[in-house]
Amino acid sequence: MIRQTREDGTDIFETEIDGETIQWDNGLTYARHLQTAQLLSAQVPVSDKPDEMLFIIMHQTMELWIKLVLHEGRLVLDAIRGDRLAAAGKGLDRISTIQRHMIQSWEVLATLTPHDFLTFRGFLRRASGFQSQQYRELEYLLGNKRGDMMIVHKDDAEATARLRAAFEAPSLYDELLRLLARRGFDIPADRLNRDWTRPYEASDAVEDAWLKIYTDVDAYWDLYTLAEKITALEYYFQEWRFKHMKTVARVIGHKPGTGGSSGVNYLVKALDLSFFPELWSMRTRMAAPREGGDYGPGAGAEA
After folding, report:
1. pLDDT tens digits, 17-31
2. Strands 20-25 and 10-17
3. Cα–Cα distance between 85 and 228 in angstroms, integer?
């Protein structure tokens, strides 16, 4: 039995199912909120091969997660600009959780055997992950400023505009260094005001600043914990890249990519890129203080 009432111009329905009172209305529904009709109709294979569906859904979900990482990343940037480090840390924690899920998701694609993939690979022609506009935008936000990468989007004015905006804006690391300068650290002026479209170059002075923070974590606890969350972001990003590379190697070996790249070899080169160089190089300079007693023979014996 369905009971019907009306509230604020909306028809409300209620019934009992398995001892639970279930309500819905003719306003905002689950399907309308999540746009499930559009979402579930967006898988359009170009072949009649059954394994292509896995390939499509895997990459579509990856694009959705990247969209969320971009959304959270922009909020983190705003929080750092506003010296709201707790909010920035919360956003970075969420990004790390998303990244761990993205890393694990390669396990699903790895169930695609070389034979499975070759049944539909020829239908893909030159379509390639290299053409992912969101991935490129994420790299720009993190600091990998390669303007030539935009050329593959030259026929998409909206995508090009979004990429251009990210390309010309300060990266996450640029904003982090500005934060350190506001906190009184001696950050070179040419690292604080520069051509944001140029790749960042490491600085001894910036490394010194991070070393000072990591040497006295109690004095700089908020900066230290934020830096560790930033480091985790790159750590998981590189793990995602590595898992991507190994999945590709497992599925196609060392064949060229559909977009013409060297495939696995191209993905291997990406593993050498670093977004936050001094946060990594500084660790080599850290030293543990000498502590403990004399551990030699006879130590502690009375003279």
Report:
1. 999 999 999 888 999
2. antiparallel
3. 12
Lookup: tokens for 231? 């480091």
Residue predicted with more confidence, 272 or 233: 233
Three-state SS string over 32-95 comes to HHHCHHHHHCCCCCCCCCCCHHHHHHHHHHHHHHHHHHHHHHHHHHHHHHCCCHHHHHHHHHHH
pLDDT band (50, 70, 90) for residue 301: low
Give the span between the Cα atoms of 278 and 275, in whole angstroms.
Answer: 9
Q: State the DSSP code for 169.
A: S
Token pair 């819905």 in the structure block, residue: 24
The enclosing H or E element of 92 equals helix 85-109
Q: What is the pLDDT of residue 260?
A: 65
Of the pLDDT bands very low, low, confident and very high (cuts 50, 70, 90), residue 112 is very high
Residue 15 lies inside a defined structural domain of this protein? no
Owner of token pair 């109709």: 41
Tokens 């292509």 correspond to: 52
Strands, E assignment, 8-63? 10-17, 20-25
The residue assigned the tokens 């490394």 is 207
Q: Identify whether 151 is part of a domain.
A: no
Q: What is the mean pLDDT of the chain?
A: 92
Ordered strands of the 20-25 beta sheet:
3-7, 10-17, 20-25
Q: Residue 98's domain spans which residues?
A: 53-132+171-285
- The answer to the question of residue 149 being in a domain is no
Decide: 160 and 138 in contact? Cβ < 8 Å.
no
How many structural domains does the chain have? 1
Query: What integer pLDDT is reported at residue 303 of this predicted model?
Result: 47
C-beta neighbour count of 290 within 10 angstroms: 5
Residue 117's domain is classified under what CATH number?
1.20.58.480
Which region, left, alpha or beta, applies to residue 166 given φ > 0 means left and ψ of -120 to 50 means alpha?
A: alpha
Q: pTM surpassing 0.85? A: yes
DSSP helix/strand/coil, 47: coil
Q: What is the residue type of 191?
A: R
